[in-house]
Amino acid sequence: MSASGDVQLPIGVFDSGVGGLTVLNAIRQRLPNENLIYLGDTARVPYGTKSALSVTRYAEQAAKALIERNVKMLVIACNTASAVAIEPLQYLYPDIPVIGVIGPGADASCDATQSQHIGVIATEGTVNNQAYQNAILERLPSASVVAHPCSLFVALAEEGWHNGDLVKQIVEACLEPFRHVDHPMIDTLVLGCTHFPALKGVIGEVMGDAVSLVDSAEITARAVADRLQIDGLLNIGAVKGEVQFLVTDGPTRFARVAQHFFSDPIPASEIQLVDIQHFAH
Amino acid sequence: MSASGDVQLPIGVFDSGVGGLTVLNAIRQRLPNENLIYLGDTARVPYGTKSALSVTRYAEQAAKALIERNVKMLVIACNTASAVAIEPLQYLYPDIPVIGVIGPGADASCDATQSQHIGVIATEGTVNNQAYQNAILERLPSASVVAHPCSLFVALAEEGWHNGDLVKQIVEACLEPFRHVDHPMIDTLVLGCTHFPALKGVIGEVMGDAVSLVDSAEITARAVADRLQIDGLLNIGAVKGEVQFLVTDGPTRFARVAQHFFSDPIPASEIQLVDIQHFAH
């Protein structure tokens, strides 16, 4: 049996920092038996304002660190990295499944829309790369897709500004472009950054009940489960899986900010500091 | 004459990204004859939420890139890097002056205060390191210093959210700790992050006329001029100096965001992309 065929091997999940914990959370809830390794590249977070070249390089280094730990699958739990680096990573690691968050998010938004007017909010990098726009149009060529960056939401989510009047006013200002008369009214909005589910309540209030919000964390977890099943890689019947955390900087801050994104406390003492910046690219 | 004795050599200025352009601007206005090289470590921005260990490493790599370009002086135009890395850099480069923004900021706040109650707003890294607190108490042992992180201000400054009612409400919420009854009323507030001068107008409105704002950009420029004069390194009588820009990622984004921090447009085509992450540390 090849290493990648060992069902007990962990699933490797990486993100630029803490945001990907929303994806890890969803995977753990759906697949409690799986062993998981999460890597947050906190030494270089955020990816969302950096160039495709740098993000691809960082994603390759993060993936390498997980591959060295013998994972059976790679999950890119970061929209920006999924947008630019999924193809290079699938090319580099053809023997294991490599899953990003864009494909599942595009699937879900095409399922959800009736008017075929879909909005996307994401980081600058994801919007500029047009990854969601292209992925949605591949699936639903007649759709109209409007994407806008909402960089402020990342800071709000990390600072724990998740609700209240002031947060609602900020969210209204950032989502203003979707309410311009020159844009068709959308009926589906993709939360195209792993930080944004922290603001889901307020975003829902601002956009109203007529707009479905697509949260890529839950959908990606489903895609992970489906793919493991197809490949015969599910860790069925085992005891509860273990979760291991790696960061490239600041375990203490990671542990503190993680509480906004992960359902259980993560003690800083259980977070391992790793250096991936020296990996050749 | 040693290389560092050549008055025509440029002054090297570095920051985590665009914020240090406020310092560069002030140096250029005060010393128009000087040649300047600015390095923004945009591949790893921000420094303010990263650990002292990582920021010191990044600062050493940035300094090395400037030293290789034969600068006559190093200016750390980033509060977080000044807080943690000035001593290592002074040790590494004893032959040239190395100036940070914390010392000049502390000097100016001690000059400005009458009540000896001084407030500091900065990034998490600068606050946690207690650099301003220590620097002010060294100069004025009887002072009381209250420091609070205002991480959201960085995002507001970069997004161009510099004024208006909503920005004022956000600034009020962030500065709330300075208006608690259990804190003595401050009469001086240090803007301890190079991004914050972009919000100076609103911060002034919120704090009121009774509170002096200390903007480290202007004060650091004065310290640079004083030190060059003392060392006989001023480039007197020369033609207008040249300014060169280096970034570690994304010249296009740098050029765009720079408009919020620098008085002249910087064409992306004039910004050179450099790699410093491979430098040994």
From TrEMBL, chains A, B:
<keyword id="KW-0573">Peptidoglycan synthesis</keyword>
<dbReference type="InterPro" id="IPR018187">
    <property type="entry name" value="Asp/Glu_racemase_AS_1"/>
</dbReference>
<feature type="binding site">
    <location>
        <begin position="194"/>
        <end position="195"/>
    </location>
    <ligand>
        <name>substrate</name>
    </ligand>
</feature>
<dbReference type="Pfam" id="PF01177">
    <property type="entry name" value="Asp_Glu_race"/>
</dbReference>
<feature type="active site" description="Proton donor/acceptor">
    <location>
        <position position="78"/>
    </location>
</feature>
<keyword id="KW-0413">Isomerase</keyword>
<dbReference type="InterPro" id="IPR001920">
    <property type="entry name" value="Asp/Glu_race"/>
</dbReference>
<keyword id="KW-0961">Cell wall biogenesis/degradation</keyword>
<dbReference type="GO" id="GO:0008881">
    <property type="term" value="F:glutamate racemase activity"/>
</dbReference>
<keyword id="KW-0133">Cell shape</keyword>
<dbReference type="InterPro" id="IPR033134">
    <property type="entry name" value="Asp/Glu_racemase_AS_2"/>
</dbReference>
<dbReference type="InterPro" id="IPR004391">
    <property type="entry name" value="Glu_race"/>
</dbReference>
<dbReference type="InterPro" id="IPR015942">
    <property type="entry name" value="Asp/Glu/hydantoin_racemase"/>
</dbReference>
<comment type="similarity">
    <text>Belongs to the aspartate/glutamate racemases family.</text>
</comment>
<comment type="pathway">
    <text>Cell wall biogenesis; peptidoglycan biosynthesis.</text>
</comment>
<protein>
    <recommendedName>
        <fullName>Glutamate racemase</fullName>
        <ecNumber>5.1.1.3</ecNumber>
    </recommendedName>
</protein>
<feature type="active site" description="Proton donor/acceptor">
    <location>
        <position position="193"/>
    </location>
</feature>
<feature type="binding site">
    <location>
        <begin position="15"/>
        <end position="16"/>
    </location>
    <ligand>
        <name>substrate</name>
    </ligand>
</feature>
<feature type="binding site">
    <location>
        <begin position="79"/>
        <end position="80"/>
    </location>
    <ligand>
        <name>substrate</name>
    </ligand>
</feature>
<feature type="binding site">
    <location>
        <begin position="47"/>
        <end position="48"/>
    </location>
    <ligand>
        <name>substrate</name>
    </ligand>
</feature>
<comment type="function">
    <text>Provides the (R)-glutamate required for cell wall biosynthesis.</text>
</comment>
